[in-house]
Design brief:
214 residues, alpha/beta, Rossmann fold, 5-stranded parallel sheet, 4-stranded antiparallel sheet, ATP binding, ABC transporter ATP-binding protein, ATP-binding, nucleotide-binding, transmembrane transporter activity
């Protein structure tokens, strides 16, 4: 059973508005990177927000571990996001007023773990991703490539089965883009996570195992 799938999925932003996804049915393979591609306006980022249970489809279902969850109550969806899903955004989306370490720990604290346990894992992840020396810095004091590595560390904090990444290389130079995709590829391959990346970057598409074109 795949960790993440959709059945008959469609979405509209307004009643009677243009419909996205055309009743999409798809299983996202565990242990692989799936690149979501397509022209602007086809809903690549919107699909990630639907998969991440932050938007509700107008019809169809998102399934996690085989269970239909997209119409679950808000509290249940929040719990699923905390336990099962990790997010990486194009601009890293780190709080400029907080340290890198605090940003990485945030999902773990939200999930109810102690600060002590969260601190240990956050430092371990930052070290593994090569930014441990920047743990006490704020986002404005690190490079774009380092910030995106921090964002990946935050996404991995709760050991999610699924990682959703929205244009994670969009603001990076080729070297940093390669580093971020290497990390996500490892998360998929050796750790058997399901990784879904919305992208228009040819390099990311080449590095992906599967391509879903909208």
């Amino acid at each position: 059973m795949s960790a993440l799938s959709v059945q008959g999925l469609a979405f509209t932003y307004t009643s009677g508005g243009d419909e996205l996804f055309d009743g999409l049915s798809h299983e996202f393979a565990p242990g692989k990177i799936t690149a979501v591609t397509g022209p602007s306006g086809r809903g690549k980022s919107t699909l990630l927000y639907v998969l991440g249970l932050m938007l509700t489809p107008s019809r169809g279902e998102v399934r996690i571990q085989g269970e239909a969850v997209s119409s679950a109550p808000d509290a249940a969806r929040s719990g699923i996001r905390a336990a099962m899903l990790g997010f990486v955004f194009q601009d890293a989306a780190l709080d400029p007023s907080r340290s890198v370490l605090d940003s990485v720990m945030e999902p773990s604290l939200y999930a109810g773990r102690t600060r002590r346990d969260s601190l240990e894992r956050a430092r371990q992840l930052l070290d593994e991703l090569g930014v441990g020396a920047r743990a006490d810095h704020r986002p404005g004091q690190i490079s774009g490539g380092q910030a995106q590595r921090v964002a990946v560390a935050r996404a991995l904090m709760n050991n999610p089965a699924v990682i959703l990444a929205d244009e994670p290389t969009g603001n990076l130079d080729p070297s940093n883009a390669e580093g971020v995709i290497d990390i996500l590829s490892k998360a998929a391959g050796s750790q058997q996570r399901t990784v879904v990346i919305a992208t228009h970057d040819p390099y990311v598409i080449r590095r992906s195992d599967e391509v879903l074109s909208l």
